[in-house]
Amino acid sequence: LRFDEKVRVVVFKSEVKGVFCAGADLKERAKMDDAEVGHFVKRLRNLMDEIAALPVPTIAAIDGYALGGGLELALACDLRVAASSAKMGLIETTRGLLPGAGGTQRLPRCVGIGLAKELIFTGRQVDGQQAFSMGLVNHAVPQNSDGDAAYQRALTLAKEILPQAPFAVKMGKLAINRGMEVDIASGMAIEGMCYAQNIPTRDRQEGMAAFREKRPPQFIGK
């Protein structure tokens, strides 16, 4: 996906009705020794980092339970859409653990430090509407009879992104992600570097020409 230039948006969904991702298999985890657990969690953390680093926008379609590592997977995505009936939570402390695949870092960046601490300290689960009210998800939608309401809303959101200039969207994502980790002056410099990379693109010229000619732009990602 990282190197496929035809890919414009990636949507993560589950094929299991009622579950987005239920997190780690604790029965499997119980059979591991301490060293194996550390190695397993490191690999999981690296996977989430790889997802977060995808250059195109990513959307998590949460149509059911997203618990522990399942919510960490959703947090690694750029955008999240949840069915109102979905259940989400970093429940690790209820099992004698703490989030180990990015949850302690991505959740506070998403909902704020105080709320993230409350959710992690208590292991509380929230539904889609509660998640929306706290900014954990971008959209909450009523579940439908097929159990894929979040996926359908995620597709609609993806289709809003698709017509936009692909390279500009990629640079926008990069500028936001890198800029959030530094002070605002450094962030402005990052934005400037990303903008400079976009200036010589064909798509920028096409966008300007389409505006002048009062027609929809035809972006090619170049």
From TrEMBL:
Gene3D superfamilies: 2-enoyl-CoA Hydratase, Chain A, domain 1 (3.90.226.10), Lyase 2-enoyl-coa Hydratase, Chain A, domain 2 (1.10.12.10). The keyword Lyase applies. InterPro entries: ClpP/crotonase-like_dom_sf, Enoyl-CoA_hyd/isom_CS, Enoyl-CoA_hydra/iso, Enoyl-CoA_hydra_C. GO terms for biological process: fatty acid beta-oxidation. One of its GO terms (cellular component) is mitochondrion. It holds the Pfam family ECH_1. It comes from the Eukaryota. Coiled coil: none annotated. The keyword Electron transport does not apply. Transmembrane segments: none annotated. Keywords: Lyase. GO terms for molecular function: enoyl-CoA hydratase activity. PANTHER family: ENOYL-COA HYDRATASE DOMAIN-CONTAINING PROTEIN 2, MITOCHONDRIAL, ENOYL-COA HYDRATASE-RELATED. Belongs to the enoyl-CoA hydratase/isomerase family. This is Enoyl-CoA hydratase domain-containing protein 2, mitochondrial. It comes from Charadrius vociferus (Killdeer).
